[in-house]
């Protein structure tokens, strides 16, 4: 016999929520969709060799090489002894690499992490499991950090999260480690949205429009009829310099050339171990914007957006109770 009532207990939190925007083309409420195409593995950069008299020790922030190399910022170089370093600035035909503090080699009994004359490799464009630099065909549009690309791999979606800005034309995307291998030619669609990096609150609301439908058959009671609903999004964000998301919103609010433009907004809430995040999205107009800039404090901006008509779409997490198909419900404790 049960000793407790088996209600679901896992609470949804705002952790890992994201709020992203893109300016809509004039005359449409459909954002432009671009296709990102995975490309074959690119030829790795070799010839990266630690200089004879300059072994690399724990905590070092520079690596001296035997010959000059050219590498981009954030490049990850893996050496033959299994150790890796990540650049903190680009190297342009240089024999010195500026890197994050070098970690201790667990297989060494000394402070030397990478011995002299050890060769390294920079795999700058891969589509294999665990890759941090994704090989793609030339990007048709700039991609901003945090963008989630869903590649169709054998009928299943593989999520790829972009880690840094990549300009249009780039053939490598720096990403969070790839969770499944891709195949040359796999595609993903994107709206090329930019996140509000300093968002501290995002609260969607819905206000049904009720009209009086009372008639002689209502007796002494009132009858109302729902004829629509006004869906809005209120959010607050810190003004972070160089953040394209907040810059977009400020220009919509304060730039005379953009005051009447619509944007496409996407609020995603973390779904825990589920595949589909809870999503609120659609074309919007800004209805209000307020700034607070007290002395010796952060500048915070509060804005209100109104979703426009039929462009709004709500997507629940997968496995959520469906009021139109209750028989499909599987309680959380029984879900596989």
Write the layout of secondary structure elements.
Layout: E1 18-23, E2 34-37, E3 45-49, E4 56-57, E5 62-71, E6 76-79, E7 84-86, E8 91-98, E9 112-114, E10 119-122, E11 133-135, E12 148-153, E13 156-161, E14 172-174, E15 187-190, E16 194-195, E17 199-212, E18 224-238, H1 244-254, E19 263-269, E20 278-292, E21 300-307, E22 313-315
Antiparallel strand pairs: 1-16, 1-19, 2-15, 3-10, 4-9, 5-8, 6-7, 6-10, 11-14, 12-13, 17-18, 18-21, 19-20, 20-21, 20-22
Quick synopsis:
The chain is mainly beta. It contains one helix and 22 strands.
Question: What's the CATH architecture of the largest domain?
Answer: Roll
Rg measurement, Å: 26 Å
Distance between the termini: 24 Å
Q: What is the residue-averaged pLDDT? A: 90
CATH topology tier name of the largest domain? Pnp Oxidase, Chain A
Strand fraction equals: 35-45%
Number of alpha- plus pi-helical segments: 1
What share of residues is helical?
A: under 10%
Compressed to H and E, one letter per element, the order equals EEEEEEEEEEEEEEEEEEHEEEE
| Coarse morphology | elongated
What's the domain count? 3
Largest sheet: 8 strands, antiparallel
Beta-strand segment tally: 22
Regions with pLDDT < 50 over 5+ consecutive residues? Answer: none
Per CATH, the class of the largest domain reads: Mainly Beta
Question: Structural class of the secondary elements?
Answer: mainly beta
